[in-house]
Amino acid sequence: MKVLDAGSVVRAFCVFLMAVVVVGIAIAVEGWCVKSLAIGGMMVLTGGLVAMQVRRAIWGLHHHSHKITEAAREAEKHYIDVLRRIVRLVEAGDRYTTGHSERVGVLAEKLARRIGLPKHECSLMKLAGELHDIGMLAVPARISAERCRIGVDDFRIITKHSQAGYEVLKPLTSLESILPATLYHHERMNGTGYPEGLTGDEIPLAARVLAVVDSYDAMTHDRPHRSAMTTLTAMQELKRCTPSGYDQQVVDGLAEILGLPALTEAIAASR
């Protein structure tokens, strides 16, 4: 269907108004005669045509708006894909971080489903995990490449990465519901985390999920200052730091996903 522009609608409406004026004059001069009735019929017809053109114009605007929305959605998908590729590329340059974000994404989605997060959030938690450290790109390379424990000043710089990542992702409306997870995944239940020192339920549940999964993956893989922990040792460490640091429900959910009998016994013994 050909969509009429605004000019066509205006012109048709002007014709309609002119017809109204003509009919008004005819009635005033000659009364209700055949000629004025004929002109009145033309007015009604013209009014009908105007209504049709207005309807088509409105449909055209709606269709155009839908196309713009679809284009924006596709642009977001492309932008997200580029960010994911950047994260993978950067992590691949360091054997200690290779695959970290991708693993966090996979496990975060599983854990979100296990503890009952809303379905639409569960499907986005994989992306939240994959992009949770995108803000690390703002951290100077000399700090990221540090192979020993970092100093206080450098740590302050690193703490800014979650806010930086949030700012990068904030324009993406499709990720709106899980943006708090990327911003607050370094918060701790007792308020000792960053960037805002939130406590308990002030921390979004999605962020508490990401915090546990991020820590677990880091502990079970080599780091410059230590070797990888076993699954059991990592879970025991998480339990030791719960509930002061991590959410009890989330840590228990992770233990259930890992499904190791010895792990279940260790958690039961720690209660």
CATH topology of the largest domain: Hypothetical protein af1432
The DSSP helix count reads: 12
User: Proportion of β residues?
Assistant: under 5%
Kindly name the structural category: mainly alpha
Task: Work out the radius of gyration.
Answer: 31 Å
Number of strands: 0
Indicate the multimeric state: single chain
**pLDDT averaged residue by residue:** 81
Q: What sort of overall outline do the alpha carbons produce when their principal axes are compared?
A: globular
Give the N-terminus to C-terminus distance in angstroms.
69 Å
Q: Helical percent range?
A: 55-70%
Biggest sheet architecture: none
Order of helices and strands: HHHHHHHHHHHH
Query: In CATH's first tier, which class of the largest domain applies?
Result: Mainly Alpha
Unreliable stretches, pLDDT < 50, 5 or more residues? none
Architecture of the largest domain, according to CATH? Orthogonal Bundle
